């Protein structure tokens, strides 16, 4: 009997689905437009026009987050029960309303119009993120999610630095001053730049989702692969031996255990609460406390996402050896340390470049490893539930936006520096739930098992704990 033919080589990730490319294009262009008008300019515009009130800025950000979570809940249900591309098309209505109201707010200097426009934007992003991320996961071969999501994070960061680059050129031409009129022109340019990004959503379709049809069977097949076999294969391929033994020391949950995504969502929720309290007030800190010019602030917002691009690549490389949760926690702790260093540098009146370097290091480290835990979350969520679990991420973003209102109150009570101290403390606490996931098998251990299954290699009969054992209620 002739041996069975070798399985065909998998296609390149970006070629495996026509949904991945348009979603990456959308992410890059949408975040370029968003960073142009929202990242630093919107905060300063509101601060200047609404009587230098931090509460007004916090309320607007909180409303944006509230509208996002309100829209994301039905969006998640509809995308799971019917079609995800339908939700993406509905989101376009919110997008056009947002552009119209924000444009009118600038022309009529209306804070009320700005509130309505940002609420529409929150609804738009709630629909897009919920359905779009689920469709992206559907279209990504199982075992490649961390690579695709890291690429998405890099594209997002590159887009985020493009907006400040355009704003820098505009401020340089308009006079390099924080004025209401100059900020208004930059905001209008951001609304116009958002239009090409919306066209990319029309290219996405559920019918083009090319997720591995055997994903569920492959993951269920992992139940029969022992940690001993994984360790033997790793020795043969000269890979890391200790990771397989450590993963076998404590049984992980089943392939579709909800405990894993819920734990990650809790950690993200606490981190989102912390980040939302301060992120909108960094531009105010630069403008009002450090007295930086608009061009200098835009340079910071260009360097920061470029640093995230580099560190995200480094983080994924480290996760190959040290696993995803461990790498995520490491970079979070470095980010908290840099935040503390920034506050100490300000307290002891060190030169501004020292403060700004600490800020850049803090921002890059806090944001570079997000794709690792997100990919791990989707690895443990069934395809038909991904839209609803993406709502958990929207709740996290709501906490980010909603806590901006709390941040505005804290700034009024204890000042911006006191607010930053609370932020750093909560961000440290947010890493603690992830310690319960340190025992999960690495992506490489799972890939090793998938290769064995694809090649049709026989599995040993053993009573040892499997690499991914079944929960008690599934036995």
Provide key terms for this protein.
475 residues, Growth Hormone, Chain: A, 0% strand, globular, disordered N terminus
Can you characterise this structure?
With 475 residues, this protein is mainly α. It has a single domain, classed as Growth Hormone, Chain: A (Up-down Bundle), CATH 1.20.1250.20. It contains 18 helices and no strands. It has helices at residues 20-39, 41-49, 54-81, 84-108, 111-138, 145-174, 180-201, 215-221, 227-236, 242-249, 259-278, 282-289, 294-322, 324-347, 352-367, 370-379, 386-429, 443-455. Helix 3 runs antiparallel to helix 4. The radius of gyration is 23 Å and the shape is globular. The two termini are 36 Å apart. Residues 1-16, 210-254 and 457-475 have low confidence and may be disordered.
């Amino acid at each position: 009997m002739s041996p069975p033919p070798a399985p065909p080589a998998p296609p390149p990730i970006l070629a495996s689905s026509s949904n991945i490319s348009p979603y990456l294009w959308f992410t890059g262009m949408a975040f370029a437009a968003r960073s142009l008008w929202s990242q630093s300019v919107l905060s300063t515009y509101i601060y200047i026009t609404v009587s230098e009130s931090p509460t007004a800025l916090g309320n607007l950000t909180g409303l944006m987050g509230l509208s996002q979570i309100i829209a994301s809940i039905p969006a998640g249900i509809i995308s799971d029960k019917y079609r995800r591309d339908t939700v993406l098309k509905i989101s376009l209505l919110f997008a056009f309303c947002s552009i119209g109201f924000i444009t009118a707010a600038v022309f009529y200097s209306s804070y009320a119009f700005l509130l309505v426009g940002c609420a529409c934007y929150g609804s738009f992003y709630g629909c897009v993120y919920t359905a779009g991320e689920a469709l992206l996961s559907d279209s990504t071969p199982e075992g490649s999610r961390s690579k695709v999501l890291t690429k998405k994070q890099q594209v997002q960061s590159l887009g985020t630095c493009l907006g400040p680059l355009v704003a820098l050129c505009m401020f340089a031409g308009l006079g390099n001053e924080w004025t209401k009129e100059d900020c208004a022109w930059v905001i209008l340019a951001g609304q116009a730049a958002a239009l090409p990004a919306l066209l990319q959503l029309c290219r996405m379709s559920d019918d083009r989702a090319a997720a591995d049809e055997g994903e569920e069977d492959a993951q269920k097949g992992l139940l029969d692969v022992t940690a001993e076999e994984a360790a033997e294969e790793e020795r043969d391929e000269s890979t890391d031996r200790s990771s397989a033994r450590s993963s076998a020391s404590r049984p992980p949950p089943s392939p579709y255990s909800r405990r894993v995504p819920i734990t990650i969502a809790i950690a993200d929720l606490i981190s989102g609460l912390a980040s939302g309290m301060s992120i909108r007030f960094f531009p105010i800190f630069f403008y009002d406390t450090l007295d930086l010019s608009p061009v200098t602030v835009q340079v910071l917002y260009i360097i920061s996402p470029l640093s995230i691009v580099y560190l995200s690549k480094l983080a994924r490389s480290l996760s190959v050896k040290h696993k995803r949760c461990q790498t995520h926690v490491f970079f979070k702790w470095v980010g908290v340390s840099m935040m503390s260093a920034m506050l100490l540098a300000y307290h002891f009146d060190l030169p501004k470049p020292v403060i700004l370097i600490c800020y850049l290091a803090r921002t890059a480290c806090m944001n570079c490893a997000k794709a690792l835990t997100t990919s791990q979350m989707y690895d443990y969520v069934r395809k038909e539930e991904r839209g609803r679990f993406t709502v958990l991420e929207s709740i996290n973003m709501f906490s980010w936006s909603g806590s901006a209102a709390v941040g505005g109150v804290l700034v009024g009570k204890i000042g911006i520096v006191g607010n930053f101290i609370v932020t750093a403390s909560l961000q440290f606490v947010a890493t603690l739930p992830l310690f319960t996931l340190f025992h999960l098998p690495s992506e490489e251990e799972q890939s090793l098992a998938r290769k064995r299954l694809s090649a049709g290699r026989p599995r040993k009969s053993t009573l040892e704990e499997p690499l991914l054992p079944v929960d008690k209620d599934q036995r």
